[in-house]
Target: Acetylornithine deacetylase
Amino acid sequence: MNAAQILERLVSFPSVVGTPNGAIVDWIRAYLESHSVEVRVLPGPEGDRANLFATLGPRDRPGHILSGHMDVVPAEEAEWRADPFTLRAEGDALHGRGTSDMKGFLAAVLASVPALKAGRLDRPLHFAFSYDEEAGCRGVPHLLARLPELCAPPLGAIIGEPSGMRGVRAHKGKAAARIRIEGRAGHSSRPDQGINAIHLMAEVLARAVETAQALEKGPQDPTFEPPYASMQIGTIRGGQALNIVPDLCVADLEARAIPGLAPRALLEPVHAVIGSLAARGVDATWEPLSDYPALSLPADAPLARLVERLTGAPSLAAVSYGTEAGLYQEAGIASIICGPGDIDRAHKPNEFIRRDELHACQAFIEALGQGLSPA
Model:
């Protein structure tokens, strides 16, 4: 099967983030095992989702990891011109949910297997395919926890997020949380008999805005736009009608951190407000949603130079989106982003990848394998 044919199969699995992914995992496992590739399926604690780890070459020697995620964002937009889970060709463009983000990379990796096997790798290539990346990289920490039993310490990890096949050395980290405040309903003419959950949430909002403004004046990293860490309340829900005291308010908060700052620590001033409300008897809860660190790879790192040599293009200093790369780096594995497609096409109706982008990625992977093969 070529990369486009494999992509057609991968897109056909509606592996939407937060849902069971057994079907796509089973298909990838069967494909790899048909090529005599060693595969481990690693169920997550959710019970209905799993990571997949595969090795070509001797797993007891240091090699490289090719990392990607099998999940996609939902495809419910009315602007889709056809079924988003059926690959559709328009000229050189292949349309479907996840084509750029990031089943195109997975397809190129899998299509390279015959050539990699023929090369009889002297050092291994590992495939690390994770789940629920789109929910804040929830699957890959479980995979990383198992890594010592799966392979020798890796030389580096290449995360195949869409980057136009140019290496990317840095991105911000992110932490997010959901805040839930329960009050007591009542008629708005008798506010003394109710507890207004939205009014209580206002204390949280005020602290979030105050913290966001302070971050703008905090540590700076000119690699990024904007060059500072940031915070925002992204959604807020509460209330039933104007004349009813709202008994529930829920807000989602995120912080994005430049390298050197811990994303979760940026949320602490707001988290402290929840503790203060709870100490006053308010039913206020804090639910962490995601937490992954920033990525920062030096320009002269061996992995950066390797990717630049294989792609023939200088690496980019940074991108605005986040990936699993920061988690690999936190685990002590040098990491870089390099994958086919364009992030500007991701999470949009009629997402697509071009055939030449798939071919370029496959050539990159096969060239990487050649460098791991005996002379």
Summary: The longest helix spans residues 197-216. The CA atoms of residues 103 and 125 lie 18 Å apart. DSSP finds eleven helices and 17 strands in the chain. The domain at 173-292 is CATH 3.30.70.360 (Alpha-Beta Plaits).
